[in-house]
Amino acid sequence: MAGMTWTIAPERHDSPVAAALWRAYYTEVSDRWYQLYEGRATDPDELEREIAADTGGHLAPPGGTLLVARYEGEPVGTAGVRLLNAGTAELKRVFVHKEMRGRGGAPRLVAAAEDAARTLGARRIVLDTRHDLVEARALYARLGYTETPPHNDQAYAEHWFAKVLS
Fold first, then answer.
1. What is the full per-residue pLDDT of the chain (166 aa) written as tens digits?
2. Which CATH number fits domain 6-164: 3.40.50.2300, 3.40.630.30, 3.30.70.660, 2.40.40.10?
3. CA distance 58 to 55
4. C-beta of residue 76 within 8 angstroms of C-beta of residue 105
5. What does residue 130 show for φ and ψ, rounded to 5 degrees?
6. String of b and e for 65-102 (b: at least 16 CB within 10 Å)?
């Protein structure tokens, strides 16, 4: 549509916008897991504990960056990167609100995160995801990520990907 614009810019990991997007992201992926494996939504107390437990501080400078995508000025998505070591960054929290999917936001977010990783000095970017997040796995494959052996032992990680940053 003419006139509809995306912007992507760094955001403080602890801003109200970042907090709202983290809540939306975590709620969706947690509910999806519980619906698939236990036929129920996430317990509200557990949801609050887990959201509070991950402040996103690892996405703060100097070793990380949180990006927020806005569509027509409204915050609708997020992606973050953090350095794991001098040459490798990790892609985190890639999320676009469900009603905004299919409009090109996720590829833009990932490209901006890759640029941020390069700025941090990374030559390679890695990520992990779950088996049930098939849309995410398809997106990463489409964007040139290749599946690799595990690079971490995260509880819910079932697929690991990497990409060389040129």
1. 445 699 999 999 999 999 999 999 999 999 999 999 999 999 999 989 988 898 899 999 999 999 999 999 999 999 999 999 999 999 999 999 999 999 999 999 999 999 999 999 999 999 999 999 999 999 999 999 999 999 999 888 999 999 999 8
2. 3.40.630.30
3. 8
4. yes
5. -95, 160
6. bbbbbbbeeebbbbbbbbbbeeebbbbbbbbbbeebee
Residue written as tokens 């997040």? Answer: 133
The model's pTM is 0.92
Segments making up each domain of the chain, as ranges: 6-164
